[in-house]
Amino acid sequence: MDWHDVQQAKLTEEIGLKQPVEYTEGEKETIATHEAGHAVIAHLVGQNRKLEVLSIIKRRDALGLLAHSDTEERFTRSRSELLGVIKIAFGGMTAEELFFGEAGTGPSSDLAHAARIAAQMVGSFGMAGSLVSFEAIEAGPVTSGIVGKVLSDDDSRRSVERILEQSKADVRTMLDSNRHMVIALRDQLLDREELVGEEILDAIVEAEAQHRLAESLDS
After folding, report:
1. Facing residues of 18 across strands?
2. Does the pTM of the predicted model rise above 0.85?
């Protein structure tokens, strides 16, 4: 048994067994680009994040995935760390838009995850300009959860939208400036379908080295 086996067992336990489905060529390229976008943003903004698995192999409801975790056990998060997680969530959708002109239905779970974190920042963590906590609203038989409470309030909903829109704009700028990283990871995924641990970082580092070499030759 080696580290790859441990990672595969972890993924099987968390999100299910691999499903040997055949994507169309276009769909496979879209999924690979989507997951590469997640990985590049995680590399650029993920504070204390470890990239574990990057895959375009279907598991349960996931057509592909980026598995990443803390480099050490953590129980709290800063505002910048939460914004980083939101930006990672937008990496896939934004990569699709940059490379194909539009995004498909794949980012739906990413958007839900980003909205959930932004709503907590606004209505629970005091990280969006207001110290009002929606957690203080008494629970009842028809009381919604924190996300529902925040999104049902117009001012708070606008705060959530501002966080999400700014995060997505930041991600677009980062991916546009680092297309070479997205392309490198996309091509690796199309060739191998799955990268584990250091293989992800190695592909990024190699892409960056080649990009710098090309720039120096042009100048």
Report:
1. 59
2. yes
Q: What CATH class is the domain 3-218?
A: mainly alpha
Instruction: Match 């590469």 to its residue by tokens.
Output: 36
Sign of the four-CA dihedral 94, 96, 99, 101: negative
Q: So what's the pLDDT on residue 143?
A: 66
Ordered by start, the domain boundaries in the chain are: 3-218
pLDDT for the residue 18: 72
Q: Which amino acid is at 139?
A: A
Q: Which helix (H) or strand (E) holds 19?
A: strand 18-19
pLDDT of residue 142 exceeding 70, the answer is no
- The residues near 146 (Cβ < 8 Å, ≥ 6 apart) are 119, 120, 123, 124, 134, 135
User: Average pLDDT for residues 139-148, to the nearest whole number?
Assistant: 77
Strands 65-70 and 18-19: unpaired
Q: List, for residues 3-59, the tens digit of each pLDDT value.
A: 777 777 876 776 666 777 788 899 999 999 999 999 999 999 987 778 888 999 887
A 10 A CB-CB count for 53 gives 21
User: Strands of 65-70's sheet, edge to edge?
Assistant: 65-70, 49-55, 194-196
Stated as kind and residue range, the H or E segment containing 55 is strand 49-55
C-alpha–C-alpha distance, residues 67 and 213, integer Å: 30
pLDDT greater than 70 at residue 122? yes
